[in-house]
Amino acid sequence: MFSIFKPLIFSLDPETAHDLAINSLKLNILPKNIFRVENEEILETNLLNEKLPNPIGLAAGFDKSAEVYNSLFRLGYGFVEVGTVTPKRQLGNPKPRVFRLEKDQALINRLGFNNHGSETVLKRIENNLPIGFLGINVGPNKDTKNKEEDYYLCLSKLSSYAGYLTINISSPNTEGLRNFQEQKGLEKLLTGINKVKKGKNISKPLVVKLSPDINDEDISRIIELIIKYKIDGIIVSNTTDGNRENLNDVQRFEKGGLSGNPLKDISTDLIKKFYSETKGKIQIIGVGGVDTGKAAFEKISAGANAVQLYTGMVYRGPGIVKEMKKDLISILKKEKIKNISSAVGINA
C-alpha cells in the first residue's frame, strides 16, 4: 500500500508528511501479526542485557517526543529509540529544515532537537508503558548555559522508564555539541554522568551516540574513555555534516546532517574500526543506510550487535522491517548461520 500512496506522501513537505505518519500511527489499527515472518526465531538476539525478537531498531529522530513507540513495536521493530529529548520543550530551528534527496535515497535535516520536553515525555511513558525495549535519547537545550547539567537532568528524570539511555553528543545541528567528543569534554561529561548514576542509583544501560566525522586517531581515545567510565555501548553513527561531493540531488548543499544511503559505507567502515579495537568488549549499534536485510547484515558482520534505521522507512514505508527480516533470514540460511548473534563481527 505504501507504494501506492508514496507519490502523494512525497508531494507533501517532509515535516508535514512526518506529522501525518505520527498521527496515523496513533490510531494503532495495524495488527501486529501481519508483520511477523516465518523462522523469525533465528533473529533473536541480546542487546544491553535484554533479549530482543530481532536486531532491527528504529533510530531516534522519528518519534522525538515519545508519542507512538508502542505502535512502532507493532510494526516489528526489535527495539525503538525515542528522542532526542531535552529538559525543556524546544521548537528547534526555523523551517524549512528537512530535505529529501530522492536521487540519493537520503535526507538532510537541521531540526535542532525539536521535542516536547522531558516532563511531557515522562508523563506519556508513565501512562503508556512500553511493550518492547525502549531507548531514550537525551541532549541539551540549545540556549542552556551548562550542557552537562541538561544531560544529568534528563538521565535523572527519564531513567525509570527507559530500557536504555543514549547520550547524544554527535548531532551537527546543536552548536558546540560535538565538542563533547573531544578528550577533555568527554571525560568531564562521563565523570558527571557516573556521579549522577551513583547518586540516583541508576542501573539502566548507557550508550553514547558518535559522529561519523571523527578522525581515526580519535577512536582509541574514545574507546579508552568508554571503557574507563563503564559505558555499555556506542551508536555508530549519527548524521554527517560533510560528504556532499558525490551526491546528485540539487538539495545536497543544504546545511544539516546527512542520513541514508550515502552514509552506509562510512558508518560500516567505522563500525569495523571500533569492533577491531574493542574486540567485542563494547556493544555496538550500527546506523546509516540500513534499508535492506543485506545492509543490516553488512553492519552486523562488521561488528554491530544490532542496527537502527530511519531514512530507510521514509523511502520504503512501514513494511520495511518485515522485508528486512525476510532478507536476513535468507542470508543466514544461505551462509549456514544458525542465529544472527553468531554473525557479529565475522567480516570485521
Report on this model:
This protein has helices at residues 2-10, 14-26, 69-74, 118-127, 147-158, 183-200, 216-228, 264-278, 293-302, 311-316, 320-334, and strands at 45-47, 50-52, 56-58, 79-85, 98-101, 106-109, 133-138, 164-168, 206-210, 233-236, 257-260, 283-287, 306-309. The chain is of the alpha/beta class and 348 residues long. The strands form 3 sheets. Strands 3-4-7-8-9-10-12-13 form an 8-stranded parallel β-barrel, surrounded by 4 helices. Helix 3 links the parallel strand 3 and strand 4 (79-85). Helix 5 runs parallel beside helix 6 (183-200) and helix 8 (264-278) packs parallel to helix 9 (293-302). The model has no long low-confidence stretch (mean pLDDT 95).
Top keywords for this entry?
single chain, about 350 residues, alpha/beta, TIM Barrel, eight-stranded parallel barrel, three-stranded antiparallel beta sheet, 11 helices, 13 strands, about 15% strand
SSE topology:
Elements: H1 2-10, H2 14-26, E1 45-47, E2 50-52, E3 56-58, H3 69-74, E4 79-85, E5 98-101, E6 106-109, H4 118-127, E7 133-138, H5 147-158, E8 164-168, H6 183-200, E9 206-210, H7 216-228, E10 233-236, E11 257-260, H8 264-278, E12 283-287, H9 293-302, E13 306-309, H10 311-316, H11 320-334
Helix pairs in contact: 5-6, 6-7, 7-8, 8-9, 9-11
